[in-house]
Amino acid sequence: MEFEEKQQLNLWWLYILIGVDAIMVGSIVLFDKGGMNFQDLKNAYFAPIWAILLPFLVVYIIQKNVLTLRINQEGIFYKYFPFKTKLTPIEWISVENVYITKYDAFGDYGGYGVKNRLWFKRNDKAYLLNDKSKGLQIEFKNGKKLLFSSNKIEEMELFLINLKTRYQIRAIS
Questions:
Q1: Packing angle between helix 47-63 and helix 12-31, nearest 10 degrees?
Q2: pTM of the entire structure?
Q3: What is the rounded radius of gyration, in angstroms, for the C-alpha atoms of the chain?
Q4: Cβ contacts of residue 53 below 8 Å, gap of 6+?
């Protein structure tokens, strides 16, 4: 019995913003004062071309990051590829409480991605990869907290209830 979810950032709207920027840079390069010829581009080390292509490449690489969350009777396991390539275990013994909670990505954590809680609460860390505003909150016995966003919140909640009743895990509430 196991729950597994894989998430990625969905930044389709960022491609639109970068596209507008690319059109502006391209217009300046091609049409300003007769445009740039190949020799001018070569003398500028192809900077306008890099200014167009580099943002697309950065957003593409960011979107290829994958958060894998796995829950079973042994504990909670997660990895955030390419930064963490092996599953990091969180055993039920070290967990005080696990529950589904609402969060505000921008108000509480300052945005999406791997974030620490704002206002100098360094013990709260979050992996926020969607805008559903609900996630799995883990409170450790040492006072630290870890939050995972989820696209399958109802399925996860049913799985946690089933896991609690079947294996008598006291950390799940």
A1: 170
A2: 0.79
A3: 22
A4: none
